[in-house]
Amino acid sequence: MEFTWVSRLIRVADLNHHGTLFAGETAKWMVEACFIAAAKKNKRTDNVVCVNIQGLQFKRPIENGDVVDIESFVAHVGTTSITVVGRIHCSRYEDQAILETAVTFVTVDDKGKPTPHHIAMERPEDPGLQAYWDRFESYKKSR
Ligand SMILES: CC(C)(COP(=O)(O)OP(=O)(O)OC[C@H]1O[C@@H](n2cnc3c(N)ncnc32)[C@H](O)[C@@H]1OP(=O)(O)O)[C@@H](O)C(=O)NCCC(=O)NCCS
């Protein structure tokens, strides 16, 4: 399993009117970090589009001067889909993940239609990672 890490320093321009990290900024960084993990797995950036952002919940405030580390890894692949789990860690909270989301991308052809990515990935053996795989497999079937 390949983990991608992106770090950011929180600055005044990133804050909302309460003085904490603006949710829209957080969502943008999260999607970008997950996109990087998906594109690395796909070995291309130009044919990857985002179709779904799941469960973005803001449980703890992040403040000016904090450093956040965004972790992302490919948790599931289908025929054309790539689902990436993204987590934000902040030293203020003893490096526990304070936000987790799953972002699904689809590989498309030059007309924007889904097209197979041919990424080879098996259901993982690690029980924690298996749980993610099974969750996204069920989610896809339930749609
Ligand atoms: C992404 C897009 C091409 C998918 O087209 P579609 O006709 O809905 O796709 P399909 O129903 O054939 O599904 C394609 C794959 O996406 C998955 N998928 C589709 N909608 C999904 C959703 N809401 N959540 C999770 N997976 C989803 C399907 O399970 C399927 O996966 P698989 O091939 O691995 O089995 C289309 O919805 C689109 O163009 N969306 C806009 C994308 C965009 O502009 N994003 C923002 C900028 S990046």
What does this structure look like?
The chain has a 5-stranded antiparallel sheet with strand order 1-3-4-5-2. The mean pLDDT is 95. A hairpin with a 6-residue loop joins strand 4 (81-90) and strand 5. It is built from 2 helices and 5 strands. Helices cover 25% and strands 31% of the residues. It starts with a strand and ends with a helix. The protein has a single domain, classed as Thiol Ester Dehydrase, Chain A (Roll). By secondary structure, it is an alpha+beta fold.
What topology emerges from the helices and strands here?
Blueprint: E1 4-9, H1 23-42, E2 48-54, E3 67-77, E4 81-90, E5 97-107, H2 127-142
Antiparallel strand pairs: 1-3, 2-5, 3-4, 4-5
Radius of gyration: 16 Å
The span between the termini is 27 Å
What's the CATH architecture name?
Answer: Roll
Helix/strand/pairing category: alpha+beta
Order of helices and strands: EHEEEEH
Low-confidence stretches: none
Count up the domains.
1
Strand content is 25-35%
The description of the largest β-sheet is: 5 strands, antiparallel
What's the CATH H-level homologous superfamily? Hotdog Thioesterase
Q: How are the strands ordered across the major sheet?
A: 1-3-4-5-2
Summed up, the helix count is 2
Distinct bound molecules: coenzyme A
The helix content, as a percent range, equals 25-40%
- The fold-level CATH name is Thiol Ester Dehydrase, Chain A
